[in-house]
Amino acid sequence: MSNSSKNKRQLKHYIADFKREQTYCSQCQTLLTRVFLMRHDQVLNKSHLYTLKERVDEQTGMIFCATLRVLCRFCTEMETLPPTYYFDLRPFRQYLLSQSNANLVSIREYVVRLRRLDEQLSSAHTKQDSLQSLREYIDKLPLSMTTLRGYHVALNRYEEYLLTVSRNKKI
Question: What's the predicted TM-score (pTM) here?
């Protein structure tokens, strides 16, 4: 075996080492309990990683790993979501992460509620042109008071986000 092939390892091993070294989400800076890797907006799952058997040197492995994004489960879900029609959820989430004091569980709940509401509005082919009309629509749904309050809280936070964005555009 030549000296150059002795120093080569399968690419999947470099990726596995890289993955084990990660402790924080590159998007929201959350301490990771489970690591997700993305490359070119594609999630690298176990079956995909298993196919990366090409033998490469350490430098090539490092270059490849530099193209990976390390994300938590929530950020991975956000990155792979289909586009929403009524709400701009990615910038909304980023706003909550950077400019509010909301904890991650609350942020996730707001986003999940707005995504569900968006799906419901889209499937019902309902045109709502203001947050007030959305609130009225929600109030007519057969939901428990707790669920209704949750939707209203999420809409209030989204309205706060929209006001901040519009104020920043005027400056």
Answer: 0.70
